[in-house]
Amino acid sequence: MPELPEVETTVNSLNILKNKKVTNLQIYTKKLRYTVPHIKLKKIIKSELIQSRRISKYVILDFKNNYTLIIHLGMSGRLKILKNYSSKHKHDHLSIKFNNNSYLLINDPRKFGFVDFIESDKIYKLSYIKKLGIDALDKKLSIEYLYKKIKKSDVLIKQILINQHIVAGIGNIYASEILFDAKISPLKKGKSLNKYQIGKIIKSIRKILKRAVESGGSSINDYVSPDGTLGNFQNNFKVYGKEGLLVRGFKIKKVILYGRSTFFCPEIQK
DNA sequence: CACTCTCCCTGAAAGC
DNA sequence: TGCTTTCAGGGAGAGT
């Protein structure tokens, strides 16, 4: 499931379409999580892709005509770049043809993702973008910022980490990995953490996410990079999905927090 | 406002 | 073996 590292890997791969012009657009699905803005989307035809970038877990494609395509991959969403595309594959919802004869496809079995289309200068007016907290890999993510956000919070640190309005980009899987790396229990309340512990968490956020980006993201379930390469960071997961396994002689436990699976090692994470 | 719960969806895995 | 049920999760919106 795409979290920050997978989205980062995705937008990097999409840069091979930079300066290419859209020659055709096919929409196969009326609605993903939200209705696909099919009328507006036609505006990208004949325009060139200027750049592919990431805002939190959103893929941002800026076009030369000053319009921007926003793609959220949800849980099972995946972008593919294909040279030959004669027939639609299962769960393909959108296909964009470029003038180098390659196709960018949005494929999403669970339809938890969505696409949006807006004038480029209005992107920060979108409520879901405007509300985002500091990006998990932004240098501006400081101990002071996080401490201030959570010093009065009764919410568990695990939930704070996946709250996109506080730190943007971390999802359920990496939250478990980050807290294991920081040796801090997911069950700790935000307000119980001191600045030293928050510093450890920030270090672990950067360490785990950067490593994951370097390994091309994770490929659990069907996440694959647009160029077809598989990420392999899931091989580096220490606790996620590893209930019952031993770490330094201690068992990894699974608990459900706010309806989400959470993996940790109580003896190591305090 | 701040928090938690529910829901959207399909395929894989578990259960029977 | 094969059918049925459960589970997975991002994030908006409803509910408290």
Protein model, in words:
With 270 residues, this protein is an alpha+beta fold. It has two domains: 4-127, Alpha-Beta Barrel (N-terminal domain of MutM-like DNA repair proteins), CATH 3.20.190.10; 134-264, Helicase, Ruva Protein, domain 3. Helices cover 23% and strands 24% of the residues. The protein has seven helices and 14 strands. It has helices at 4-14, 38-41, 127-130, 143-150, 157-161, 172-182, 195-214; strands at residues 22-27, 49-55, 58-63, 67-72, 78-82, 92-98, 103-107, 114-119, 134-135, 167-168, 246-247, 250-251, 253-257, 260-264. The strands form five sheets. It has a four-stranded antiparallel sheet with strand order 1-6-7-5, with no helix packed on it. Strands 2-3-4-8 form a four-stranded antiparallel sheet, covered by helices on one side. Helix 1 runs parallel beside helix 7, helix 4 (143-150) packs across helix 7 (195-214) and helix 6 packs across helix 7. The longest helix is centred in the C-terminal third of the chain and has 20 residues, at 195-214. The chain binds a DNA duplex (16 and 16 nucleotides) through residues 1-3, 32-34, 57, 72-76, 91, 108-113, 128, 153-155, 159, 162, 164, 171-173, 221-222, 258-261.
